[in-house]
Amino acid sequence: MIRALCLAGGLAGGMTLSQFPEFSQQYLQRLAGQVDALTVVVKDFDASALASGLGREDALEQLEGTAFLASRQADMRRTIARHARLVEDLILLRDASPLVRLTLPHRMADVETLRATWVDFTPAVPVTVAGAASAGTGFLGGWAVIAALFGLIISPMRRRPYAKNKAAARHEPAIRIEPPTTRPTLVTQTPGHIPKLAGAQR
Length: 202
Prior knowledge:
Blueprint (H helix, E strand, L loop, with lengths): L1 H16 L2 H32 L4 H6 L5 H29 L2 H4 L9 H9 L9 H43 L31
């Protein structure tokens, strides 16, 4: 029963992780589009600041004085920070092979890009080396997770009989074995065996 469930968990993990190379490729395409769109916004802001004789930080600091300008400043700061982060992610993911991307899930954590990729994601048959490696890793991982869960569930049940027997042995009174006692044997002599004294008369 446990082996069958572990096998099912391994197959589920293998099928799920086998799609990672294709998903990462589609995420990379979406990420490139996000970077291109953000680059236009950031460059436009920098160009406007430069036309006014200001640097980027100086222009951001001038977005103050009203609630609207303060909101625009916060939005622009978030946009610039996100653009810098996604550019770095895009460079690393483009340089990484599909197998190396398995170790870079933290570089595919942009919520907006993830959501857009998942909505349009189309599963593919894992016919590449990366797909086979991902499937194998997922199978082993799924098997290990199910086995570990059953181990945590069963281990307390295995300890209870042992603890009970140990406690019973601890409280069981000790049995003292005394050595056998020997009773002295009395040697009786019959009157016929009493020695007679010479010259004595009864």
